Amino acid sequence: MFQEFRHLRVQEASDVDHLLSPTQVRPQSTLRSPALDVMTDFAETAPVTVSAQMSVDEALDWMKSQHVRMLFVVNEKNQFAGVITARDIAGSRAMVYAQQHGIARAEVQVCHIMLGRAHIRGLTFEQVANATIGDLMLTMQGSGDQHVVVIDEGYAGVKRVRGVISASDISRLLKVSFEVMYEAKTFAEIEKIVAQGGEL
């Protein structure tokens, strides 16, 4: 069974002093870097999904285990139905729904408080492919969205969610708090914040 594999010679690490970081391999991202740098592309990384009928508490546990703050909701036919965020679950929405419908919080399902696809805004893959991170920043600052889905068309013109862009990923890439960026009044201020590493 293992004939096709071979043992690799393990080496000592006692004389290794340094850790490589991505900034040493590729230049630090800026507002002028391609927007695709910050898009989670589902052609490369599978989306983290959840059933619309799952309880919100189970969905929150699933988010934590997958290290994400948003899940894509699928219906019984495994079709895209909407999104749900950690903020939706941890905030008051679940409790309000439970009180309004006379049920226990444990009975609240994802479908009860998710944002349905009819209310989700997105960008086309073509828009993102021709944009910069600064364009995304300005767009998301203006709309107040924490997540934006990216839509493209597959063969035979079938529309699908190709990826997602999150404010937290932009913050991580630029090493600047998104909340600080929201406080900026002009694009020049945002550039200054990025250049100074988060100081207004």
From TrEMBL:
SUPFAM superfamilies, sorted: CBS-domain pair (SSF54631)
A Pfam family that the UniProt record links to this protein: CBS
Chain coiled-coil ranges: none
InterPro entries per the UniProt record, alphabetical: CBS_dom, CBS_dom_sf, CBS_domain-containing
Domain CBS: 39-103
Keyword terms of this UniProt record: CBS domain, Repeat
Protein name: CBS domain-containing protein
Organism name: Marinobacterium aestuarii
